[in-house]
Amino acid sequence: DAGVIQSPRHEVTEMGQEVTLRCKPISGHNSLFWYRQTMMRGLELLIYFNNNVPIDDSGMPEDRFSAKMPNASFSTLKIQPSEPRDSAVYFCASSLSSGGAGEQFFGPGTRLTVL
Amino acid sequence: GENVEQHPSTLSVQEGDSAVIKCTYSDSASNYFPWYKQELGKRPQLIIDIRSNVGEKKDQRIAVTLNKTAKHFSLHITETQPEDSAVYFCAASPRMDSSYKLIFGSGTRLLVRP
């Protein structure tokens, strides 16, 4: 298996533009997580899905952020409009969750820079 | 909600010495405690985990201990090597409605001096 796949790996955009980050989880995994990592705030959980259904989006910073998981093999995180403070590394992770939390496998991350 | 505190934030040790990183959690019902290692510019990767029905777990030079009464758990690395240099994150899984999420600590930057 190729592991969790994220695209793009790097994104540079200007303030106000729409940004879409993409994630393909490991085949067979039923939980998907979106994290944001910055020096100041560490590793923050934004939202997670179980069986394609959003379970907890309490970490989504504001209405500018939205996430979808239309099927078991694809998820997107969208920021519209983007702001400089959104600059961070965004990780997607997946796991096979059964009866509780388990190992999460992280993707390589998307480094987002908003100018 | 669950809160995980981790310390120290930075740790410098001489190669061959031991390193200990400690975490505390607030939700007494949390039942899963993994540790992740993140090398510079890379993704976090699981190195060891422990569940609440176990007090200690070892894997070669790495061990994790859990004290449920005190609500803290620790990572122990013995015979440290330069390749152990990385940021280490602890995490806890709050047990609420079969939640699968992890709450991460703020990380410890470990430097192993050759």
Q: What would your notes on this structure say?
A:
The complex is a heterodimer of chains A (115) and B (114). Chain A has no helices and eleven strands. The mean pLDDT of chain A is 94. Chain A is globular and about 40 Å long. The N and C termini of chain A lie far apart (36 Å). By secondary structure, chain A is mainly beta. In chain A, strands 2, 4, 5, 6, 9, 10 and 11 form a seven-stranded mixed β-sheet that branches. In chain A, 39% of the residues are buried. In chain B, the strands form two sheets. In chain B, strands 2, 4, 5, 9, 10 and 11 form a six-stranded mixed β-sheet that branches. Chain B has a five-stranded antiparallel β-sheet with strand order 1-3-8-7-6, with no helix packed on it. Chain B has strands spanning 4-7, 10-14, 19-25, 32-38, 45-51, 56-59, 62-67, 72-77, 86-92, 103-104, 108-113. The radius of gyration of chain B is 14 Å and the shape is globular. With 114 residues, chain B is an all-beta fold. The model of chain B has no long low-confidence stretch (mean pLDDT 93). In chain B, strand 7 (62-67) and strand 8 (72-77) form a beta hairpin. The interface between A and B is medium-sized, with 22 and 22 residues.
